Amino acid sequence: MPLKQFSPTSPGRRFHIALQTPELSKKAPESRLLAPLRRSGGRNNTGRITQEHRGGGAAKHYRLVDFRRNKLGIPGVVTAIEYDPNRNAHLALITYRDGEKRYIIHPIGLTVGQTVLAAADAEIFPGNALPLKNIPVGTSVHNVALKIGGRGQLCRAAGTFAQVMAKDGHHIHLKMPSGEVRLIHHECWATVGQVGNEQYENIAFGKAGRVRWLGWRPHVRGMAMNPVDHPHGGGEGRSKGGNHPRSATNVPAKGYKTRGKKPSDRLIVKRRK
């Protein structure tokens, strides 16, 4: 998936780096697998802003993605590989033998016309889903479930994958993209392969307008605000007031751990730091 640079016909084009995606199918998305997507503007159910600098953006439909892979024992053919505006990974449209169509996360190496299968005895092939206990050590997987019978929650972003490191009783040692080694129950399902569109991190939007299209609003520095608006605000000249870097809600911004203790901490064999 090569990168594409443009002639500097404008300031936005000068710094724009895009991806060439010849593997994407030139077709409209499957209408039966679309759902309306309401934008929250970064607000919670009470109307308060809990995520700043969000709002606007291009209108888009949500694609109903099969994260559970519970179409067991029925082979499906890859009909198309499509762009998804809601995530950085691409989607593969699967047409099953009984006529049903579903979207799955597109892994590297899966092309149009190939067959995928979700079964306990499925072949170790990109796009096939099977329990972790049946996946050999050293295999790269994605869309990993955390609970037995649950949907895939881990490693769904573009270019990510987890590696099966070892098998210990009823648990599998899984190495995450962050370097963390975590125990997952061997009855949990995962999909073989690495998520596609791995060059996504190398693109450059080129102009602020493209970021606005994605739903991000401008970000104002705290030092440019008044003291009533931010802990860094006010003062004569450029000054934080002698305080450590903090967010607008007065939470330390560097080196402050916000993750609380969870029952699942006992399943972490090696932390990422």
Give your account of this protein's structure.
Strand 6 (91-96) and strand 7 form a beta hairpin. The protein has a 7-stranded antiparallel beta sheet with strand order 9-16-10-13-14-15-17, with no helix packed on it. A 4-stranded antiparallel beta sheet has the order 7-6-5-8, with no helix packed on it. The chain has 273 residues and is mainly β. The longest helix is centred in the C-terminal third of the chain and has 6 residues, at 208-213. The protein is built from 2 helices and 17 strands.
Strand content: 15-25%
Helix content: under 10%
- State the major sheet: 7 strands, antiparallel
Rounded to the nearest angstrom, the distance between the terminal CA atoms is 32 Å
Poorly predicted residue ranges: none
Question: Helix segment count?
Answer: 2
**Rough outline:** globular
Give me the count of strands: 17
Describe the SSE topology:
Layout: E1 3-5, H1 11-14, E2 17-19, E3 34-35, E4 62-63, E5 76-82, E6 91-96, E7 101-105, E8 115-116, E9 129-131, E10 140-142, E11 144-145, E12 152-154, E13 162-168, E14 171-175, E15 181-185, E16 189-192, H2 208-213, E17 268-270
Antiparallel strand pairs: 1-2, 3-4, 5-6, 5-8, 6-7, 9-16, 10-13, 10-16, 11-12, 13-14, 14-15, 15-17
In summary, what is this structure?
This protein is mainly beta and 273 residues long. The chain has helices at residues 11-14, 208-213, and strands spanning 3-5, 17-19, 34-35, 62-63, 76-82, 91-96, 101-105, 115-116, 129-131, 140-142, 144-145, 152-154, 162-168, 171-175, 181-185, 189-192, 268-270. It is globular, with a radius of gyration of 22 Å.
